[in-house]
Write a structure and sequence with these properties.
By secondary structure, this protein is mostly helical. It has one domain (about 5-140). The protein contains eight helices and no strands. α2 crosses α5, α3 runs parallel beside α5 (about 75-95) and α7 crosses α8 (about 125-140). It is globular and about 45 Å long.
């Protein structure tokens, strides 16, 4: 699957239909602020049984303010898109939501026994570390 299409699907956004057009549409939407619904959609996909999961990405008070105008800030949107990128890759590697969820919420030795979800939420560097582990699983190196 085209990684940009997977991210757009995870966010529930309407973006271009192929390659570069889709990527640039996503960039534009992130820069202007994704809808709060994108955070809700992604949170429900990653942690369907945890209604407070979204507050790990956007604090509760901020979320309530954003919900009124239905739009996240550019920085919050970048965090949500980063997590969507990791989630999409995990689903691709593991073959489905349940398997990806199990990976994301299980400690991993290559991540200092932290949960990949915690590492990915923390920073872009953390997300890259999780991508490295997923890449190792997908392409055959030690993970």
């Amino acid at each position: 699957m085209d990684p940009y299409r997977g991210v757009a699907a995870a966010l529930g956004t309407k973006a271009g239909t192929s390659g570069r057009a889709l990527a640039f549409d996503l960039i534009s939407q992130i820069e202007t602020g994704l809808p709060v619904a994108s955070l809700d959609r992604l949170s429900n996909a990653i942690a369907p049984d945890d209604s407070s999961f979204k507050f790990r990405i956007v604090p509760r008070a901020t979320y309530m303010r954003r919900k009124k105008n239905r739009q996240l800030s550019a920085a919050e949107s970048a965090d949500v898109a980063r997590l969507a990128r990791i989630w999409t890759f995990a689903k691709e590697v593991w073959g489905g939501d349940e398997e990806a969820r199990a990976f994301m919420f299980r400690s991993h030795p290559l991540l200092e026994d932290l949960h990949p979800i915690d590492v990915a939420i923390g920073s872009e560097i953390g997300a890259r570390l999780v991508e490295d582990v997923l890449g190792g699983l997908a392409y055959g190196s030690a993970a």
